[in-house]
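Annotated sample (chain length 360).
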Amino acid sequence: MDRQGAGRRSPLFEYHRELGAKLVDFGGWEMPLAYPTGTLAEHLACRRATALFDVSHLGTVRVEGPGGFDVLQATLTNDLAKVGPGRTQYSHLLAEDGSVLDDLIVWWTEAEVFDVMPNASNTARVQAALGGRDVTASRAVLAVQGPTARRVLAQVSAEAAQVGRSQVRRVGWGRTELTVAGTGYTGEDGVEIAVAAEDAGPLWQALVDAGAVPAGLGARDTLRLEAGLPLYGHELGPGITPLQAGLSWVVAWEKPTFVGKEALVAERRQGVSRRLRGVRAEGRRPPRPGAPVLASGRAVGGVTSGNFSPVLGVGIGLALVDTAAGLEAGQAVTVVERGHELACRLCRLPFYTRSKPNDA
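Output written by the structure step:
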């Protein structure tokens, strides 16, 4: 349900309220930040078992018809010709200066049907660039993530549990149809499921009954940070290009054109002036967005995201660091956080990979 002037609500809003979730505004949506169990417990549930997220705030722009492929190819950075129907692909929508207007996932569900999944606040912008229909209000999206996610999901739908990484498939579930994609934003195995809004509640409850632990956007953020995944508005956005964010693999240089290509080609030729790096604190206090990063007393960059890592037990962050500083992983830096100097080291990304934390 939507409330005029008060933000949008997921079809699962009443489930979150009944579970005692702390609700916050996120991209114009009233979404659960955490449940009474708390972000730490929800984070560890995803790392050790199965967590269930409501990510209905993500947009869905449906581009269909014989010209849909050509529009996406001429606009987005990645190359859909490398995949095909039944696959998903991560891509970027750029401004002409090469900076990222949105990072998104394309679900290629049928030969001439593409469900493009933008960030919550960018749905209108993506629709303006690609055309298509905004079908966000007609569905909910649930993310089932964790090392036991497929085992839990199989109790609800064995067919859905078989959808592999980067695949997308439509499967029947009772009276409705699920669109299941092997995607996620946690660093763990799992799927994301689009379901008709009116059937979202029964699916959510079935997954909870099967053992999935409800988790809020607080845990989603700490999980993606440990996995070194960018967040629009922090590691991606105005003035930040895919090359600076370490995401050159999402750029199909061989394509004849895409929006922003000329600027990226020039940047690649000249060399990037800054690059996204991991920052690991010596203690539990995390670096915070906007805090300057210093090396030998000289400012060399700034923190874009930071939080406490439940797996590593220390503060971690992402920072855009000047390439001219010549810093490597393992080198000491200082983050100036609200008048405090945090002793940190640059760290290889990701901080965490499927049950294996990165200590370097």
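Annotation: The chain has nine helices and 22 strands.
Annotation: The two ends are 46 Å apart (CA to CA).
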